[in-house]
Specification:
The structure is a single chain. The strands form five sheets. A five-stranded antiparallel beta sheet has the order 5-4-7-2-11. Strands 8, 9, 10 and 12 form a four-stranded antiparallel beta sheet that branches. A three-stranded mixed beta sheet has the order 1-3-6. It is α+β, with helices and mostly antiparallel strands and 350 residues long. It folds into three domains: 85 residues, no CATH class; 123 residues, 2-Layer Sandwich (Tetrahydropterin Synthase, Chain A), CATH 3.30.479.30; 51 residues, no CATH class. The longest helix has 40 residues. α3 packs across α4. It contains seven helices and 16 strands.
């Protein structure tokens, strides 16, 4: 920007070199007769006199200040440029474009979570859009004491606010802490409303808020990924068989060798299980054969009347404990379990 001289007419303009500048203030000792005001696309020009707004010009183009600008100024309508005199005024050029700002949590925010005394650490990243909406508040809050103001300067002021708003809206009822992306739109809308109220104090408005992603510490993310994998697998047997087949397709790799060893172990275990099952099956069949032969003994359960074998100690039908019959080793006579001598021959019983 060139400065106006005291003897020559000049051009009052803002040649933008940085798209992130929110406003630029032109000021000099005085504006000379014959000077022009140039307003480019995406700019508004505000003429200030003694710190007060005299006029706001939004149409783009080149304007003669004496004939086209001064007649519209609030208190300077009758101002006339003299031969050696000029108008002492400031011109504030405002960038009317919408700014897109990238943001991210400065530090991980700790959200209350059952089982984690210190809370669950979460970070978030995204963008928001803002633009100038109220010139009077902008001048009162910022432009009155600064010549330029950038998006990065404003961003520094609001990052701490964003962390607080993020915590507020994540903590709302019903949020799944391990699937926050499903609630990203709702959380973003709430943050936009609150941030808009904050920036309104500086003459800005927020037109959009997006949350691109949430992130967790690596160890927590690993657990989330593992849980998702297990859920997708469904049948673990099929999953293991598939992994084994994939490994066996690469016999020359370490994975293939390891898989082969695992396959041999698995096969051995399977054979052992089949043998056990076979032994159990034979035991059941043997018991069935004994049960089928039991009626030839002539014994019956005193509880349910079912036929039992000669040496059965329990009834196969009702589980009743049975008394086992005994015989004298000398004469073969039947004796009771508690007899000490045979009633037939007098033989002492063991």
């Amino acid at each position: 920007m060139g400065l106006f001289g005291n003897e020559f007419s000049n051009v009052v303009e803002w040649q933008e070199t940085d798209e992130d500048v929110i406003f630029y203030k032109w000021h000099n000792d005085e504006i000379k007769k014959g000077s022009k005001l140039i307003i480019r696309p995406g700019q508004d020009a505000i003429v200030l006199y003694n710190g007060k707004i005299e006029g706001i010009f939004k149409d783009e183009g080149s304007f003669d200040i004496e004939s086209q600008i001064v007649p519209f100024l609030s208190t300077l309508k009758g101002f006339r440029f003299g031969f050696n005199s000029g108008m002492r005024a400031e011109v504030l050029f405002v960038n009317t474009k919408e700014f897109t700002v990238r943001w991210g949590t400065k530090n991980a925010i700790m959200l209350p979570y059952a089982g984690l005394p210190g809370g669950l650490p979460i970070r978030a990243f995204g963008t928001f859009q803002m633009k100038v909406s109220d010139y009077i508040r902008l001048i009162d809050a910022i432009a009155g004491v600064k010549d330029t103001y950038t998006v990065n300067e404003l961003k520094t002021r609001i990052l701490s606010i964003l962390d607080q708003l993020l915590m507020k809206w994540i903590s709302k009822e019903g949020k799944d802490m391990f699937n926050l992306q499903a609630s990203a739109y709702e959380i973003g809308q709430g943050m936009q409303q609150d941030l808009d109220m904050e920036l309104l104090k500086m003459g800005m408005c927020v037109s959009g808020m997006q949350i691109a992603s949430f992130s967790y510490p690596q160890e927590i993310q690993d657990k989330i990924n593992a849980a998702a994998s297990y859920h997708m697998v469904g049948d673990m047997n099929t999953y293991q068989q598939g992994k084994l087949a994939d490994s066996l397709d690469q016999p020359n790799s370490g994975a293939g060798s390891t898989a082969s060893m695992g396959f041999g172990m698995a096969a051995g275990m399977q054979m052992a299980q089949q043998m056990m099952q076979g032994m159990q099956s034979q035991g059941i069949q043997s018991q069935g054969t004994q049960s089928q032969a039991a009626p030839a003994s002539g014994r019956h359960c005193p509880s349910c009347g079912a036929a039992v074998g000669q040496n059965d100690r329990f009834c196969a039908g009702c589980g009743q404990k049975l008394e086992v019959a005994a015989f004298c080793p000398s004469c073969g006579a039947k004796v009771s379990a508690g007899d000490r001598f045979c009633a037939g021959c007098g033989q002492k019983l063991q």
